[in-house]
Structure formats: structure tokens, C-alpha cells
Amino acid sequence: MCGVGLPAALRKITMSIEIDYINPVIAGLEGVFKTMLDCQVERTGLGLMENSHALYPVSGIIGVSGKGVGTIVVSMQRSVALKIAEVMLMMEGLTEIDNDVLDAVGEITNMVCGDAKAKLAQFQLSISLPNILCGEECWLHFPQNSHPISIPFKCPWGLLALQIGFSFPGAKK
Hints:
By secondary structure, the chain is of the alpha+beta class. The chain contains three helices and eight strands; from the N terminus they run αββββααββββ. Strands 1, 2, 3, 4, 5, 6, 7 and 8 form an eight-stranded antiparallel β-sheet that branches. Strand 7 and strand 8 form a beta hairpin. The longest helix has 30 residues, at about 10-35. The radius of gyration is 16 Å and the shape is globular.
């Protein structure tokens, strides 16, 4: 999955480090959706990203720096974004992606990454403010030498995915 083209010993270390970063992000997404939105998400897969597009039309993006550098994307279908805003804003019947919906997606993305950051204290991470992309086939940027993965989920509101890529500048080849 990760570290393709690296010497076996470094590939094993890199994969272990990447897993150490990724599992808390998965747990963060599952926990935030359950506790903040009362919505159960179910992971449906895991794989290397085939291209640098956001999987779905609404995406919250946070940059990560510290002992590793990375990008974490929470990408979702419009239906998921709308329902997140409905729950967070205690409104019903939202049909348009507007600033309130985008703010809600940004806040959920921030919560997911903040939860992961707390579980990754040993990596001395800092996270950026969330940025939001809205539109079809938006391009994502991941750090050089990263091996971005996609982790799709489903929930009662639709489909979403984590798209995560980390690079470890201190790792020697």
C-alpha cells in the first residue's frame, strides 16, 4: 500500500509511520460523526488514490505539519454536506450548498483532524485552518513523496471518504 519503490527496511518503517498517522484520523471521523452528528459511518474500503481529484463534490482540507507533513481531506457527496449542516444548525430541508453548509463542513473537518491530532501528540503536529473545495473534479495537493490513500465510507446520508497523504522529510533513503 505505502512506500512503493523504497528499500524494504525503510518501506516497513514508512508504512508503520503512515499507519500510525492514518488510524487516528479514521477513528476521528468515526467518533465525530457518532458523537456530534449522531450518524454511524461504515468504512467500505481502503486503497491508493488513482489520481489527485477529490472523490466527491464537497471537501474539507487540512494541512498537517510536525514530524511528518501531510494533507487530510474529508470529501463527501452533497447530501452528506447538507445533512451535516442541518444537524449542526438545527435546520431542516436544506437543498443548496451555501456558506452555512460550507462552514459546517469546515467545522466537521476541523473536529476530525483535531481529534486525530490529540491522539498523535508524540508526533508534535500542527494543523492548519480548514479550506473547503466545492465542485466536480477538484484537484488536491499532497506532499511530495507521499503515497495518498483513499478510505471510503458510507452512512445513511450518502457517501464520503478520507483522502490522506503524508511525507516524512526526516526519513533517509
